[in-house]
TrEMBL record:
It comes from the Bacteria. It comes from Herminiimonas arsenicoxydans. Coiled coil: none annotated. Residues 86-218 form the RNase H type-1 domain. InterPro entries: RNaseH-like_sf, RNaseH_domain, RNaseH_sf. This is RNase H type-1 domain-containing protein. Pfam families: RVT_3 (PF13456). PROSITE patterns: RNASE_H_1 (PS50879). GO terms for molecular function: nucleic acid binding; RNA-DNA hybrid ribonuclease activity.
Length: 222
């Protein structure tokens, strides 16, 4: 049986008001009155089921609010970072996809030198989920950059998971192998900047990753 604090946590204001009137009219305790009101609302559900359902609704609402706040923070961060970069810097974009998820992975990337010349990256990358595909795309861009060793490099991606993970002290265990490889490459470059951008701003790399999924698998791929 749910405790009083559980009932108070999930009861709406109008239900609390109704329970107070019921307690006054029938000389019931506040708890008994609230139980009667909520049981009437629950219908065929038990009180425990009603409490669990409403707690889940509150948790879902809190998650949605947190996601909206994160999107707003991402948008503000993007605006702060979207000023024109140093004209002497090399720019790169990466994107990975998986069809289905998990499924066949495709890697896409673009490396642009200060003169505007582009190097495109696009290849199938075996089987895995989207996070692995995004990491492999970041690694591919880093490897391409390492061939020219630019003095300044700015890397853009729309994967918050990978960008946060590669810069975290303790990232996701399942991504540890890819994080280690990416960090090894980053350490060989001149402190590249890693910047999140909205997916719509990553269209070229996305198109290359989608194209890669349609290519035949490379011999030896799992």
């Amino acid at each position: 049986m749910p405790k009083l604090e559980d009932l108070l946590e999930v009861a709406y204001k109008k239900e609390c008001a109704s329970s107070r009137r019921l307690a006054k009219n029938l000389a019931l305790s506040a708890e008994d009155a609230l139980r009667q009101i909520l049981q009437a609302v629950a219908g065929n559900q038990t009180l425990a089921e009603l409490v669990a359902s409403r707690k889940q609704q509150k948790a879902d609402a809190a998650t949605n609010i947190a996601r909206r706040k994160q999107r707003m923070a991402d948008a503000h961060a993007y605006k702060r970072s979207s000023a024109l970069p140093d004209p002497t810097a090399w720019l790169a974009w990466f994107d990975g996809t998986s069809h289905p998820n998990p499924g066949k992975m495709g890697v896409g990337g673009v490396l642009k030198n200060p003169n505007g010349e582009l190097t495109s990256i696009s290849f199938p990358a075996g089987q895995g989920d989207s996070s692995k595909a995004e990491y492999l795309a970041l690694i591919a861009v880093l490897q391409a950059a390492l061939e020219v060793r630019p003095a300044k490099l700015v890397i853009y991606g729309d994967s918050r998971v990978v960008l946060d993970d590669v810069q975290a002290e303790n990232g996701a265990l399942v991504l540890s192998h890819h994080r280690m490889r990416a960090r090894q490459l980053i350490a060989q470059l001149a402190n590249p900047a890693l910047i999140w951008i909205p997916r719509r701003k990553n269209a070229a790399a996305d198109a290359l990753s989608q194209q890669a999924v349609k290519l035949p698998a490379i011999c030896g791929e799992a």
